[in-house]
């Protein structure tokens, strides 16, 4: 039987989602915990990679098991997991369902703030400049009109294509001086969101015009874009799947 596991985690203590030879990853911790419950080796396949320090309020991973789910599976699994990783639900899916390749879209949020606040520093990036969010949103509209994001991709990756289709990209004023960048696409390249945010901030500071932002995309050159912003303020918040992958109607709690 194949299952989808819905997970949230604070990425501060991990070198990203994916297994690393010499560093701790979220995937490694989950593999060990799930394997312990089944008393056999279980390997999870994630919906994507999150970089070092990046968080997730909703990550999805699939795994195969020859035996039925142990009783009180999610409760017992959460007992085994550290405080910074939580399992929200587990759902049976079709045998060929794939957490990564069947995903229709993924949504990320990035948070920035200005006024010094000790309670925001671990999950948002402080920017001291007065930013023009109207100009940043106008620049973000360009992201919906293109499909090659080479300029915002980490160099020397094993990705076969840098084509992505962005369906939403905008800055939202959340409260006080806290702003949230929302972006949804069918897929993301490594470091893509952080590079986009870093470049949009240059627009907000007045250091880059809307035309220059458009030219950055057209150049298809990572060196043309700005530096990436830190990872701790980035959250994977949602992943959408077609109904056909599920054996039963979805009952996953929105969180």
Commentary on this structure:
- The chain is an alpha+beta fold.
- The chain is 20% helix and 25% strand.
- Strands 1, 2, 3, 4, 5, 6, 7, 8 and 9 form a 9-stranded mixed sheet that branches.
- Strand 7 (166-175) and strand 8 form a beta hairpin.
- Helix 3 packs across helix 4.
- The protein is globular, with a radius of gyration of 19 Å.
- The mean pLDDT is 94.
What's the short story on this structure?
Its EC number is 5.4.99.12. The chain is an alpha+beta fold.
Task: Set out the fold topology.
Blueprint: E1 2-9, H1 26-38, E2 45-46, E3 55-64, H2 73-80, E4 85-93, E5 105-113, E6 125-126, H3 133-140, E7 166-175, E8 178-185, H4 192-204, H5 210-219, E9 234-240
Parallel strand pairs: 3-9, 5-6
Antiparallel strand pairs: 1-3, 1-4, 2-3, 5-8, 5-9, 7-8
Helix pairs in contact: 3-4
Query: How many β-strand stretches?
Result: 9
Please state the CA-atom Rg, rounded to the nearest Å. 19 Å
Count of discrete alpha- or pi-helical segments spanning 4 or more residues: 5
Q: For the record, give the distance between the C-alpha atoms at the N and C termini, rounded to a whole number.
A: 26 Å
N to C succession of SSEs: EHEEHEEEHEEHHE
Average pLDDT, to the nearest integer? 94
Helix content bin: 10-25%
Q: What is the chains' assembly state?
A: single chain
Class derived from helix and strand content: alpha+beta
Biggest β-sheet, characterized? 9 strands, mixed
Sum up the overall morphology in one term: globular
The unreliable regions are none
What portion of residues belong to β-strands? 25-35%
Binding site for substrate: 108
Catalytic activity: uridine(38/39/40) in tRNA = pseudouridine(38/39/40) in tRNA
Domain Pseudouridine synthase I TruA alpha/beta: 8-102, 139-242
Protein name: tRNA pseudouridine synthase A
